[in-house]
Design brief:
Blueprint (H helix, E strand, L loop, with lengths): L2 H26 L4 H5 L2 H15 L3 E6 L5 E3 L4 H7 L8 H15 L1 E8 L5 E7 L4 E8 L2 E8 L11 E5 L11 H4 L1 H19 L6 E5 L8 H14 L10 E5 L4 H4 L2 H15 L14 H30 L9 E5 L9 H13 L5 H7 L20 H14 L1
Antiparallel strand pairs: 1-2, 1-10, 3-4, 3-7, 5-6, 8-9
Helix pairs in contact: 3-5, 3-10, 7-10
Amino acid sequence: MNIFGFDIQIRRKQEKEPVESFINARRMGHVGNRSAMALAAVYRCVNVISESVAQLPIETFRKDNEGYKSLYVSHPAYTLLREFPSPDMSRFTFLKTLVSSVLLQGNGYAYIDRDEFGNALSLQYIPAGLVNIVYINVDGTMRMRYQVTGFKHLVEPIDMVHILNFSYDGITGVSTLTHARNTLSISSYAEDYAKEFFDGGGNVNGILTVVDGRLRAGQKDEIKKDWAEMISKGGVGVLEGNMTYQSVSINPSDAQMLETREFNVIDICRFFGVSPVKAFDLSKSSYSTVEATQLAFLTDTLAPMLENIELELKRKVFRPSERNSIEVKFDTSGLLRADKAAQATWIKTQIEGGLLTINEARRQLDLPKVDNGDQPLVNNAMVTLDYVLKKQQEAKTTR
């Protein structure tokens, strides 16, 4: 199958479809993906999750019979997963696009192009809107297949990486925006109203009151028009003898709708599992809150997503005969790159505990090997009680 030829057709169609879908969604009163992404909170939540996943290298390990793992650099999929999933995408771009699709569409798809031996050659990202799940009769049993726009044949599940978001049936994922539609609609309308409100000056200028008498039909509009024309030219306004003017202003806090819009930011963050602090809402934060937020983000938000991707890659990219001896893991140490102190403490602890050798630590820091750096080290101060008692007995004997 000429995947690259199909890939071009897919992208050309993708350029047209989202615009039409967005227009139709706006007409129906729904919040489309691009409309939702215009909201700062949604954009930040999707961006922080997708980029956090994308920056982590994917390591391929080989397991021995005792369960010990070592890097499997010679495997054809090692470079594929770690650096270049496809000729036109780096790992960062691929993962960011895939995870964004999972969050916004509910499903992330990537077609696996293989050689004649079954080894994966590339992972071709496919927009979720171009994939449908169908069932066909295979030897009397209904089997699932993927129908992809631009492909001549149905794709078997073994050749399609499929990352699901929240799912009711375990077959198709549901977009986070679907669950958040009510909140997003309120927030979208609040943003639209705020824009129109401030475009109009942000306040009601004032009220003209006729002291006595009733106005005939249409007279209100005439007075309003004449007054608007007069004050638009600047200078001094002149009132009729039976008119008074009262200035009207709105409290800035009410005008900006802070309470409503803060509530929407928190609700949106809750749907995506991201703390408002990660969305740059620092109104109720402190330094300790930021530290706790980062830990919660890693364990509660990123960890499930990473596990989901790892298992799917192991299940689909590698041949069935390899799965028992292959392990796919994200290298989460990359999350410490920005915090040099935390990174140094972590590496020091691993070396002193004998969990990392000097050269293994240097490899993580992109440093060359050193001689005699492949032996694990242990802290000599930590000894067994038997060793202490033995030394005490030896000291007594020598006296």
